Amino acid sequence: VRDCIQKTLTEWSSKISQDQNQETLEVLECTVAQAIEKINPEERDELKVSAKLFIVGSNSSSIRDAVDLACSALGVAQLDSVIIAPPPVEDGTNLSLEYLQPYWKELENLVQNKKIVAIGTSDLDKMLLEQLYLWAQVKPSSNQVNLASCCVMPPDLTAFAKECDIQLLTHNDPKELLCEASFQEVLQESIQNVKANKWIPLWLLRYSVIVKSRGIIKSKGYIIQAKRNAS
Question: How far apart are the C-alpha atoms of 107 and 109, rounded to whole Å?
Answer without folding.
Answer: 5
